[in-house]
Design a protein that fits this description.
There is one protein chain. The chain has two domains: 89 residues, Rossmann fold (3-Layer(aba) Sandwich); 124 residues, 3-Layer(aba) Sandwich (Rossmann fold). It has ten helices and twelve strands. The two termini are 30 Å apart. It binds nicotinamide-adenine-dinucleotide. Nicotinamide-adenine-dinucleotide binds next to helix 10.
């Protein structure tokens, strides 16, 4: 039976560390760390995600400065809201909740976020910093995957890793982080021929294809660590990932569950990026470095 890569449990541990950093330095700084989640329109899934992020902020002592704009808000007004948040000294992290309503181009808006306040690590400068191995806020989902692997004693160094998916949100930064951790990385995507031939060679497989239950027993090498990033609502109710958990569990050495694996860690890394930005702005030493490699 595979070791369960428990994101819920790790998220709780990391939250405790964040709380103690915030508690220890709030008096000196004179204010709590601040995260602004900017939501445009009424995507129902986004409403739930934003509420979860705000609850997580409250748990560790991060102040929320959310803004919710109507779906028909013109791009220049969204842009001025971002500029206001960039200039707001109470705000250490800014997150533009995606997807945006049709007609709004996310790219110039993401680029307008001050890179030092980029809580999602998706600004071009921060993706460039990741590429070059320079410090900066890291993309939350892949950083959460790295933390899950490390905290379960899975060291990617010298291992063959396959990342399924090449999105800017997950697959690409994931491949860079695994490479930085000295894995030998293959990136598979929708045009990859014979996916299973690649994944069966790998000691670590990260699945971020957004295809319900596409990875089964035939894709997995016995003893591999499998991280399931996908999350889907099943027509009959409940959630599933990109991996057929019942098939892979008996073969793999480790598997992340859905829900309760990568999802909670994504939210936690947002908190980490915000607290680290607050520390950096105020010259505070912290012990969170291994979470943002
Ligand atoms: P995306 O649609 O932008 O990218 C999917 C990638 O998978 C593409 O690069 C595509 O080439 C590849 N792909 C698609 N079908 C494939 C196939 N049959 N074989 C190999 N590769 C294939 O999606 P994304 O934003 O990267 O997200 C991926 C999944 O992760 C989604 O299910 C999303 O909901 C989930 N997600 C979860 C979290 C979380 O916190 N748990 C965070 C972000 C994304």
């Amino acid at each position: 039976m595979a070791l369960r890569l428990d994101g819920k449990e790790l998220a709780a541990t990391v939250e405790r560390r964040l709380t103690s950093v915030v508690d220890a330095h709030t008096k000196t700084v004179g204010r709590l760390p601040g995260l602004a989640v900017l939501r445009v329109g009424d995507d129902p899934a986004s409403a739930v995600y934003v509420a979860n992020k705000e609850k997580a902020c409250a748990r560790v002592g991060i102040a929320s400065y959310g803004a919710h704009l109507a779906a028909d808000t013109p791009a220049d007004q969204v842009l001025s809201t971002i500029k206001l948040l960039n200039a707001d000294s109470r705000v250490d992290g800014i997150l533009l909740q995606l997807p945006l309503p049709k007609g709004l181009d996310e790219r110039p808006l993401l680029e307008a976020i001050d890179p030092e306040k980029d809580a999602d690590g998706l600004h071009t400068l921060n993706l460039g910093r990741l590429l070059k191995g320079e410090p900066g806020p890291r993309s939350c989902t892949p950083a959460g995957v790295m933390a899950l692997l490390r905290s379960n004693g899975i060291d990617p160094a010298g291992q063959r890793a396959v990342v399924i998916g090449r999105s800017i949100l997950v697959g690409q930064p994931m491949a860079l982080m695994l490479q930085a951790a000295n894995a030998t990385v293959t990136v598979a995507h929708s045009r990859t021929a014979d996916l299973a031939a690649h994944t069966r060679e790998a000691e670590i497989v990260v699945v971020a294809a957004g295809r319900p239950e596409m990875v089964g027993a035939e894709h997995v090498r016995p003893g591999a660590a499998v991280v399931d990033v996908g999350i889907h609502r099943k027509p009959e109710g409940g959630l599933c990932g990109d991996v057929v958990a019942e098939e892979v569990e008996p073969i793999a050495a480790a598997l992340s569950p859905v829900p309760g694996g990568v999802g909670p860690m994504t939210v936690t890394m947002l908190l980490v990026n915000t607290v680290v930005a607050w520390c950096r702005r105020h010259g505070i030493n912290h012990d969170l470095d291994e979470l943002i490699v």
